[in-house]
Amino acid sequence: MSSHNSASANDPRQPSTAKPFVATPVAPQELPIDYAGFIAVVFGIVGVMFRYKICSWLAIIFCAQSLSNMRNIETDLKQISMAMMFAIMGLVTNYLGPARPGTKG
User: Fold this and answer.
1) Is the pLDDT assigned to residue 105 strictly greater than 80?
2) From CA 59, how far away is CA 40, in angstroms rounded?
3) Distance (Å, whole) CA 96 – CA 104
4) Which of 2, 43, 66, 91 lies 20 to 30 angstroms, CA to CA, from 35?
5) How far is it, in rounded angstroms, from Cα 5 to Cα 73?
């Protein structure tokens, strides 16, 4: 017990000089690129154009990732909503649309 008390007495830190961290504001133009949102748009378009189910599912996954890491709500929400629309449109055309020529089922 006595070693604990002597250790706190010899503590070199000074709590009076500690200051809370304040993040510096960053302009929306200087934010890093949202790669997950861009990849979601690309996969969504490929899923619709070429009727690849896996691309549409990947677009939804990347949309969720981009939504969870959203920094600028105005621009990122537009990109995510566009990617989500392409992904859902791709899934609807793949699962509910007419079958591709040359495939069974």
Assistant:
1) no
2) 4
3) 15
4) 91
5) 50
